[in-house]
Amino acid sequence: MAFSLYDASVANYLQILGGVSGFLERGLAHFREKNIDPETMVEARLAPDMLPLRFQIISVAQHSRGAIEAAQSGEFRPPSFKTPYDYAGLQALVAQTREALEGWTPDAVNALGGRDVVFLLGDHKLPFTTEGFLMSFSLPNFYFHATTAYDILRTNGVPLGKRDFMGRLKMKK
Question: Which residues of 15-43 are buried (b: 16+ CB within 10 A; e: fewer)?
Fold first, then answer.
């Protein structure tokens, strides 16, 4: 069986987005149990020069749903640094992202292969093929931001483990 563009991208996005949804939910339960306002976590960072949880979750959405949409449109732009979200809004963004990606069929994603995708950052333009964009840019960024969001919650006392990050495994049936 051939490994498809869908398998390499959307299937992995959905697995990890399930983990992100779960660890945000565990975070909310932990904060409620400890009488911590979850809104204080929205701007939490691992280090002063890193972007906050809010940006990490926005980036998870942008580098999954946004990446597939970019493969379709031919253009990708980074997310805004200033988009306002509260904790519930971040959870909703993850749910909306999952729902949108679940609407993509393997045939539709695989048909995007070989197209041109340009990453636009100000005056800079980075040209890619769909495969190069997804595999060398989007997926690494997606995993980086999902991991950073996990780490922010973990550093702030949320009892998380590796299984919380990984989501539902694709086990042999």
Answer: ebbebbbbbbeebbebbeeeebebeebbe
